[in-house]
Specification:
mainly alpha, 585 residues, 63% helix, Dicarboxylate transport 2.1, CitT-rel, disordered N terminus
């Protein structure tokens, strides 16, 4: 799933760029980290990701640093992710992988199942709700509880929920599997393949390095350079976790180590801690999606910047909220508040969490050296650029010429396959894409049937009556519901699970309270991106950045809340006037 797609970046094909992401074993995410990550017992303990090598043997990120300090490089050697592969030249035979989870965790299993059973048999069925609808709701709630408590991996638990639907004859086979033909879900799947293309060709790495070269003379300039490159890459690289782990974290680590800022000790605050927090907290461009907070604004900026954006768009359509020309509408509504967030967030962090190193005069030279070592833009990189320009153009103008977004994505993927930028093994090994297809489809299918059977309308009418009893105007109800949707994310490990569980219900509540439909749908979607850095487990990219070892857990929670509140204020104030100007209400 998108939240934890990082493990899918490794592959066994022979054509790609090499990058290394070190994740310290002090990361503490019970039930949340993907199993393929393995823990080494070397000193210091490191978790690494390794993707593929290129036949042209592109250098490690900022290899100039490694040649200057070979001792340090040997200490932080690259370890292969797949330690079981006998033909992997980077594998370490002494490395013992973490044992995989076998079977379900008993206590989370009992709690998750009990919730569904209590709702089904102990809670009286409301008048107006059919037995079929009430049984579906009980299974859905049990499924959601499992997503939070993780008795099994997400897709496995969703499969059990799907099986329960069929065994209890709550839904027919055709109805239960109907969401597997959903266009938006397949668009999300294909987006993972595009992300692999960016990593494999090295294009994302090259773009980010150029921004470091141009803006990297100061720590604040470095932060803005990384943010701008995030904004540029986001529309065409829809996996926030892939952007974080495959492009930005390796660059941040190289820059930090060159400044003497090492993870896990007092020197981390020289440079690394600030850059990590800046990338986490700057909202991904709602223009498309989010790099945790920077990622949050960048993700919000573009419809195609994050998988959760596309899911929000689909679920809104299920409730009859149709957004015309979605790519442009999304960009226009997000542009002003997102850009203000992108500008303000690094400055606020610079005051609240200042780096000890304020100037980085050597960074542009290091970046220039790296670009020189990388050589000229390769054929595959140019192909990637052309394909993504075509795909984005079709996403923007597709409605006018009758090409749906998913067809535009399929055209782009077909070009990459035909020209050899990607091969089918790349697609098959992108496990997170197929994992996402499995559990997203189950959740979307359940949510759709809850709407069709009247459960969502019943819930929204109950909330509406309560709000009316408080005599709240729609702006006040809007604020209460948005704050509730935001704070509930402390219970979720990942943004997409949150959307699948609660987006439809909260949108229905907004509509029942009289909130303009487009405003409600977009605000909830943008809100989803803004809480991506609330905790170290709130999104896949948050786990990646926290795992780098540069930030302490108390700082993550404190800064996550403060910056989320800051961005919520920016969005609330700016969008009030901007959306009024655009005529959204």
């Amino acid at each position: 799933m998108e939240s934890f797609a990082l493990h899918s970046l490794s592959t066994t094909t022979t054509t790609t760029t090499t990058f290394s992401t070190s994740l310290y074993t002090r990361i503490s995410l019970p039930h949340r980290l993907p199993k393929p990550l393995s823990i080494t017992k070397s000193s210091p303990s490191i978790l690494s990701l390794s993707t593929i090598r290129s036949s042209t043997q592109k250098p490690l990120l900022f290899s100039a640093l490694h040649t200057k300090n070979k001792t340090f490089y040997s200490k932080f050697r690259i370890l292969a992710l797949d330690t079981k592969s006998s033909d992997n030249p980077l594998s370490d035979s002494s490395e013992k992988p973490t044992p995989a989870q076998k079977g379900a965790k008993l206590i989370p299993l009992l709690i998750s199942v009990s919730i569904g059973l209590i709702v089904r048999f102990a809670v009286p069925k409301p008048i107006g709700i059919t037995p079929q609808a009430w049984q579906l709701l009980s299974i859905f709630l049990s499924t959601i509880a499992g997503l939070i408590l993780s008795p099994l991996p997400v897709a496995a638990w969703a499969f059990l929920g799907l099986t329960t639907l069929l065994v209890t004859r709550t839904l027919t086979f055709t109805t239960a599997f109907s969401a597997f033909t959903n266009e938006v879900i397949w668009l999300i799947v294909i987006s993972f393949f595009f992300a692999r293309g960016f990593v494999k060709t090295g294009l994302g790495d090259r773009i980010a390095t150029y921004f470091v070269k141009w803006l990297g003379k100061s720590t604040l300039g470095l932060s803005y350079g990384l943010i701008l490159s995030e904004v540029l890459i986001a529309p065409a690289m829809p996996s926030t976790t892939a952007r974080a782990g495959g492009v930005f974290l390796p660059i941040i680590k190289s820059l930090s180590l060159s400044a003497g800022s090492k993870p896990g000790d007092s020197s981390s605050k020289k440079l690394g801690s600030y850059l990590i927090q800046s990338q986490m907290q700057v909202p991904s461009p709602p223009l498309s999606c989010n790099v945790v907070q920077c990622a949050g604004s960048s993700s919000s900026l573009f419809l195609t910047a994050a998988a959760q954006n596309l899911l929000c768009y689909k679920l809104a359509g299920e409730l009859g909220v149709m957004i015309p020309n979605p790519w442009i509408s999304w960009l226009k509504a997000a542009s002003l508040p997102a850009l203000i967030s992108l500008v303000v967030t690094p400055l606020v962090l610079y005051k609240l969490y200042p780096p000890e190193t304020k100037d980085t005069p050597d960074a542009p030279a290091v970046a220039a050296k790296k670009l020189e070592t990388m050589g000229s833009v390769t054929k595959n990189e140019w192909t990637m650029v052309g394909t993504m320009l075509l795909a984005v153009s079709l996403w923007v103008f597709g409605d006018a010429i009758g090409i749906p977004s998913v067809v535009a994505a399929m055209i782009g993927l077909s070009i990459l396959l035909l020209l050899g930028v990607l091969d089918w093994d790349d697609c098959l090994s992108e496990k997170s894409a197929w994992d996402t297809l499995a559990w997203f489809a189950v959740l979307v299918g359940m949510a759709t049937q809850l709407t069709n059977l009247g459960v969502i309308s019943w819930m929204s009418s109950c909330v509406s009556k309560n709000l009316q009893s408080l005599s709240l105007s729609w702006p006040a109800a809007f604020g209460v519901l948005q704050a509730s949707y935001f704070l509930i994310h402390y219970l979720f490990a990942g943004q997409i699970g949150h959307v699948g569980a609660l987006y439809s219900a909260f949108l229905a509540m907004h509509l029942a309270a009289g909130v303009p439909a487009t405003v409600a749908a977009l605000a909830l979607a943008y809100n989803t991106n803004l809480f991506g850095a609330l905790t170290h487990y709130s999104s896949g990219q948050s786990a990646v950045y926290y795992g780098a070892g540069y930030t302490d857990l108390p700082d993550v929670f404190k800064l996550g809340f403060v910056m989320a509140l800051t961005n919520a204020i920016i969005w609330g104030v700016t969008a009030t006037f901007w959306w009024k100007f655009l005529g959204l209400y």
